[in-house]
Design a protein that fits this description.
Blueprint lengths: L17 H4 L6 H16 L5 H5 L3 H8 L3 H11 L2 H12 L17 H38 L4 E6 L2 E7 H24 L13 H5 L11 H7 L16 H27 L7 E2 L19 H21 L11 H6 L3 H20 L1 E2 L1 H10 L6 H10 L6 H9 L9 H6 L5 H5 L3 H8 L8 H18 L5
Antiparallel strand pairs: 1-2, 3-4
Helix pairs in contact: 2-7, 2-10, 5-6, 7-8, 7-14, 7-21, 8-11, 8-21, 11-12, 11-14, 12-14, 16-17
């Protein structure tokens, strides 16, 4: 039976990534690199072209079907995973390709194969799955931002009502972060590199046996890596320098955090006393094991909780920054868990995609919440108006201690100061348009609508430039 488990809890493993990180598929790019090595050896005339032709497409496909589980069985004898791989490849070769056996893994070291293979998995999984999912999420969020760009919502700081914004503005603050994450991931994915430099990174065997020559381009390393779509690192030891991959995985952590921010906002806005956001309740879904009436924000909670796992998983990456001299084995077991960061973030993305498609914003609740403190939330505008008009003293303290306590829903703060005759001269110097705003607090949304649409437009421009189809 094939094993398609991925790193981490199977509860949070999206099927979309099994092709890349499913356990029995992990060895496939390693085999691709061994085949690229054979092809490159023929190109530089180390092995005869006729011999390479014996490696038929059918045989290549047979080799690519070798599973990680098969390698594990051989590794129990070799105590070395890449040696186990080359042994199984040799066993799988038909009799008419026997002459190729001495050339499998020729001049390579294990991490020429394994490090570069993992880079292939990270890049391919991003380009073929994660990037497409993120693009779909961006498309849907643009629609939400544009739809609610003008819809007033109370802005909150420290969990308290502050000033009006719009629901589209709130969503745009999330969308802008997602867009930034998409751009960063694209950049970091393009920066991922491979290696084919030998046991200490100095091309010792390649130079001695004529695989590469000083000053000749392309180098043998470039030949091998370019066959699988990679460029080489500027320099390496037996292992790749950690920074390009660490930066790439950190970009995932940032995306995970931005997804968690959306989830946190939504689950708070789903509170019974707020009710501005609804998560669709489907089919036979149950909110509580004992209280049938409950409608819990389970998906949003799940998305936010996964970020804790992603953040913690990245600690393994930071712990793996250093090795002894040209390489030791301490980091090997640690790095095998790195794909968990990708797996978990893709799970978050797919959950976000699910909720954003059915997410509902309750405009009645928005209006109700705006009305709660509509009589006092223009305090900022009023104290600034008094200061501009020449109020003597501390206008902020005056509004805070003498005006706000007297305000009621039927007598908002601007009406309170109308009854204060000591302010007659000051009131006359307050511009008409400011008075109009004080009398119409729901219009005090600043540039919320315009900024929301700016973010939507910037995201739309990115989506149109991005050649990846969804």
């Amino acid at each position: 039976m094939e094993n398609f488990m991925m790193p981490g809890n199977p509860r949070y493993q999206p099927l979309s990534l099994v092709e890349f990180f499913g356990y029995d598929h992990l060895v496939r790019p390693m085999i691709e690199l061994e085949l690229a090595l054979l092809d490159s050896l023929a190109e530089v005339k180390i092995i005869p072209a006729k011999l390479l032709k014996s490696l038929s497409p059918v045989t290549r496909q047979s080799l690519l079907r070798i599973t990680t589980t098969e390698i594990d069985e051989q590794e129990r004898k070799t105590r070395h995973d890449v040696k186990a791989l080359t042994d199984v490849m040799m066993e799988r070769l038909p009799s008419d390709t026997e002459g190729l056996k001495p050339w499998i893994h020729f001049s390579a070291t294990s991490f020429d194969i394994r490090d570069s293979a993992m880079i292939l998995l990270y890049r391919r999984s991003y380009e073929e799955v994660v990037r497409r999912t993120l693009k779909t999420v961006l498309v849907l969020m643009v629609e939400k931002v544009e739809r609610y760009a003008k819809t007033p919502q109370i802005g909150r700081t420290h969990g308290k009502h502050a000033m009006p914004i719009t629901a589209g503005f709130w969503l745009a603050t999330i969308l802008a972060r997602w867009l930034d994450c998409a751009l960063r991931l694209n950049e970091k994915a393009d920066s991922l590199v491979g290696k084919f430099t030998g046991i200490v990174g100095a091309y010792n065997a390649q130079l001695l046996f004529g695989l590469t020559k000083q000053g000749i381009s392309p180098t043998f390393e470039e030949r091998v890596l370019r066959k699988v779509g990679l460029e080489p690192a500027l320099i390496s030891t037996q292992i790749l320098p950690p920074e390009p991959l660490d930066d790439f995985l950190h970009a995932y952590v940032l995306l995970s955090g931005a997804l968690a921010q959306f989830a946190r906002d939504c689950r708070h806005l789903m509170r019974s006393e707020i009710g501005e956001v609804r998560e669709q309740f489907t089919g036979k879904q149950t909110g509580s094991s004992t209280a049938p009436h409950k409608r819990n924000p389970i998906t949003y909670e799940n998305i936010e909780g996964i970020h804790i796992l992603v953040r913690n998983a990245y600690q393994n990456v930071l712990a793996n920054l250093n090795s002894e001299h040209q390489r030791d084995l301490v980091g090997s077991s640690v790095s095998r868990q790195f794909p968990e960061i990708v797996v978990l973030t893709q799970y978050q993305l797919e959950q976000t995609l699910k909720v954003i498609q059915t997410m509902e914003i309750d405009e009645t609740a928005l209006q109700k919440n705006l009305a709660q403190e509509k009589h006092i939330f223009m305090s900022e505008a009023l104290q600034l108006a008094l200061r501009q008009a020449g109020f003597e003293g501390d206008a902020h303290a005056f509004i805070n201690h003498e005006v706000v306590p007297k305000a009621t829903p039927s007598k908002p703060i601007h009406q309170v100061i109308l009854e204060m005759h000591k302010l007659d001269a000051i009131r006359e110097r307050i511009p008409i348009h400011v008075w109009h705003a004080l009398e119409n607090p729901l219009s005090y949304t600043g540039r919320a609508e315009q900024k929301a649409l700016e973010v939507a437009h910037a995201t739309q421009e990115y989506l149109e430039r991005d050649s990846i189809s969804i």
